[in-house]
Design brief:
Mean pLDDT is 86; it is low at 1-34. Helix content is 38%, strand content 17%. Strands 1, 2, 3, 4, 5, 6 and 7 form a seven-stranded antiparallel beta sheet that branches. It has six helices and seven strands; from the N terminus they run H-H-H-H-E-E-E-E-H-E-H-E-E. It is of the alpha+beta class.
């Protein structure tokens, strides 16, 4: 899910929660009689004297907070105008198909913006990492470090392999791990991202390497939509090549 969709979904959820808390509050026996169970009066808040103003302001804070990340990419006046139009049941300035196209284009712009920022940060990280002891860099930009060097054969592009691995982002967030699942992963080398294809072909069976993948050797500017890998992300893998499961070896 792109940033726009996440913000919109969160906004709707936040507003729904605020409204539901009031609408679904349990009515205790005796409510409405005297002061027991009576509806709370408006708080004393400067500039917001009525319950309606306070409720609107509170919901606005929730929605505004969820949209803060994209505040420079949307026109707030148009946003408020559209909310009034929708709430008043008036005729909107765009139809559903136009809204869909606008959302799609906006999501693409946000994805490109996020990817560019992540690529810039990733390039800085890789430049520093390349200077670390033991780190080697291939012509493609793949970085690797030998943790344990095996003595078995190396796989080819079409080899089916068995590996243990731990994948993380540059901030250390682990997004996938065969170690945590308790069993190695098996796959054909040609089915994985380019950085894995290149990295594993450097590894004899029995080896354990660290691999650092520039975004173009991982999931590129798309990332994993709805998943943990943002567009333009550098990926870090600890990989252990356990075995080659076919005869396609070099």
């Amino acid at each position: 899910m792109n940033k726009l969709a996440r913000a919109a979904a969160t906004s709707v959820l936040a507003a729904s929660i605020v409204l539901a808390l009031g609408a679904c509050k349990k009515i205790e026996p005796g409510a409405g009689k005297g002061t027991a169970g009576a509806t709370p009066a408006a708080l004393e808040i400067a500039g917001l004297p009525t319950e309606e103003q306070q409720a609107g302001y509170a919901i606005g804070l929730q929605i505004g907070g969820t949209l803060a990340e994209i505040k420079d990419d949307v026109d707030v006046d148009s946003l408020i105008k559209a909310m009034r139009t929708s709430m008043n049941g008036e005729e909107p300035l765009m139809n559903e198909e136009q809204a869909r196209q606008v959302f799609e284009a906006f999501g693409q712009r946000m994805q490109a913006k996020m990817a560019a920022g992540n690529r810039e940060a990733g390039e800085a990280f890789l430049a520093a990492n390349a200077k670390e002891e033991g780190v080697q860099v291939t012509d493609s930009g793949l970085q690797y470090k030998v943790l344990e060097q095996g003595s078995g054969p190396t796989p080819g592009t079409d080899s089916r392999v068995s590996v243990h691995y731990r994948g993380s982002l540059v901030d250390g967030t682990v997004f996938d791990s065969s170690y945590e699942r308790g069993e190695p992963a098996t796959f054909t080398l040609s089915s994985v991202v380019p950085g894995w294809q290149e990295g594993l072909q450097l590894m004899p069976v029995g080896s354990k390497y660290m691999l650092w993948l520039p975004s173009e050797l991982g999931y590129g500017d798309v990332g994993t939509p709805g998943g943990p890998i943002a567009p333009g992300s550098v990926l870090v893998f600890e990989v252990e090549l356990i075995d080659i499961l076919d005869e396609a070896t070099e």
